[in-house]
Design a protein that fits this description.
This protein has two domains: about 140 residues, N-utilizing Substance Protein B Homolog, Chain A (Orthogonal Bundle), CATH 1.10.940; about 250 residues, Rossmann fold. The chain has about 425 residues and is an alpha/beta fold. The protein has 18 helices and twelve strands. The strands form two sheets. Strands 5, 6, 7, 8, 9, 10, 11 and 12 form an eight-stranded mixed sheet that branches. A four-stranded antiparallel sheet has the order 2-3-1-4, covered by helices on one side. The structure holds S-adenosylmethionine (SAM). The site of S-adenosylmethionine has 18 residues, from helix 14 and strand 6.
């Protein structure tokens, strides 16, 4: 089997093509690539880092490459474009020795039968290895690495300074966050993690998750500190009938089960529901699992509380999924808002009078957050907002909006490694 560094880079080229040229999410393209899954764990980690770095810095890389290439590499030459992007990422951001980055890139275009591009790839990457720092001077990474539609939507929602802070936070990789079922202090020691004010454990070193103590027994699961907040905002759920709508892969279902609720978890995706079932089984937790479209499904009995973690653009998770910035656009957001409205209306139908509904999206787009909730409140006078209180989100008091919703942003807790961008609103009817 070919296990030379070239095999890793070959997998990276294929996956980058699948992602940026064909629109497949990076994680899906990686999971579906045989060459990648056959690599040893160290090489897989390298490929992941190389791809994430290339996509995270795509705007800067393109800025440099466009100054060095006169004719765009398209059609049959498109592979050359991805090879150059990956080569540039290695030289500009990963500190790969120039001979390794340049030679393997030349071999990659040769392998692809693009012999006529060998000279170009060699010359462009040698120029970057020689003058890379100078080529980056006076560039604006936050702006360059953010597509225009996102930048403008954030300027409109948050203003220039906050937009710049959001985009700057996206240049950093996100830390590994963990939710533990109990004994957070004990597990902070076991996992060499910091306990954040909201109770999430944050591990500095990352590491192979499945090999860390407590994972196999389901003592904890991976969940961003912001993603752990919506379920908590349902308050004490002990023995309550709780629906977790759009539940898979089940991070929030596990929180609710662990908190003593009788949970019905609903998700439209059978494949993701299987994962949810496996996650629950690992933790020794159980819930009523329903594979259905939650905007059409109706339970026999209404619920005391509902968590609606609606499908969304995911622009609050760009630190973990930088590809989202380049794969999604305003039309995707507009389509999602229709689904979000339908899900919200059905969730209200399923709620007992006086019950609590928490709506959450891991998106920075106002269309998917406050605008959806404002629409619900205008159309349904019986629905009221229940303000999030500072005591419920210790250390994140600034994330409470003037109206009493929660709006986390990626640069919050910057000194601790940041946070995913979530919008959360709590309603009662
Ligand atoms: C943000 S993810 C949920 C994450 C999950 N709550 C967790 O904490 O692990 C959104 C989920 O919505 C599901 N989904 C999308 N449209 C749906 C619908 N109409 N009904 C039910 N589930 C839906 C997707 O399959 C996906 O699993």
């Amino acid at each position: 089997m070919d296990v030379t560094p070239l095999a890793s880079r070959r997998a990276a080229v294929d996956v980058l093509m699948a992602c940026l040229d064909k629109g497949q999410p990076l994680d899906d393209a990686l999971a579906g690539h045989r060459g990648f899954t056959a690599l040893d764990p160290r090489d897989r980690a390298f490929v992941r880092l190389l791809l994430a770095t290339t996509v995270r810095h795509l705007g800067e890389i393109e800025g440099v490459l466009s100054g060095l290439i006169t004719k765009p590499l398209e059609g049959a030459n498109a592979v050359g474009r991805q090879v150059l992007r990956l080569g540039a990422a290695q030289l500009m951001f990963l500190g790969t020795p120039p001979h390794a980055a340049v030679d393997t890139s030349v071999r990659l275009v040769e392998d692809a039968g693009l012999h006529h591009l060998k000279g170009l790839v060699n010359a462009v990457l040698r120029r970057i290895s020689r003058d890379g720092d100078a080529l980056l001077v006076d560039r604006d990474p936050a702006r360059l690495n953010t597509p225009r539609w996102l930048w403008e939507s954030w300027i409109h929602a948050y203003g220039e300074d906050t937009t710049r802070a959001i985009a700057s936070a996206h240049l950093q990789e996100a830390p590994l966050d963990i939710t533990v079922r109990r004994d957070a202090d004990h597990w902070a020691g076991q996992l060499e993690a910091e306990k954040l004010p909201t109770g999430t454990l944050r591990r500095k070193g990352g590491g192979h998750i499945a090999e860390l103590p407590g994972f196999a027994e389901g003592t904890w699961w991976v969940q961003d500190a912001a993603a752990a907040l919506p379920a908590r905002l349902l308050g004490d759920v002990t023995d309550k009938r709780v629906a977790d709508l759009c539940a898979a892969p089940g991070g929030k279902t596990m929180q609710l089960c662990a908190a003593g609720a009788q949970v019905t978890a609903v998700d439209i995706s059978a494949r993701r529901m299987t994962r949810l079932g496996e996650n629950l089984a690992r933790a020794g937790l159980s819930a009523n699992l329903v594979t259905a479209d939650a905007s059409k499904w109706m339970p026999e009995e209404k619920f005391d509380a509902i968590l609606l973690d609606a499908p969304c653009s995911g622009t609050g998770t760009l630190r973990r999924h930088p590809d989202i910035a380049w794969l999604k656009d305003e039309e995707d957001v507009a389509r999602l808002t229709v689904t979000q409205d339908r899900l919200l209306m059905r969730a209200l139908d399923m709620l007992k009078p006086g019950g609590t509904l928490v709506y959450a999206v891991c998106s920075l787009q106002e269309d998917e957050g406050i605008e959806r909730i404002n629409g619900v409140l205008v159309r349904n006078p019986q629905v009221k907002r229940v303000r999030v209180t500072p005591a419920e989100v210790p250390g994140l008091e600034d994330a409470i909006t003037p109206r009493g919703d929660l709006r986390t942003l990626p640069f919050m807790w910057a000194d601790r490694g940041g946070l995913d961008g979530f919008y959360v609103a709590r309603l009662t009817a």
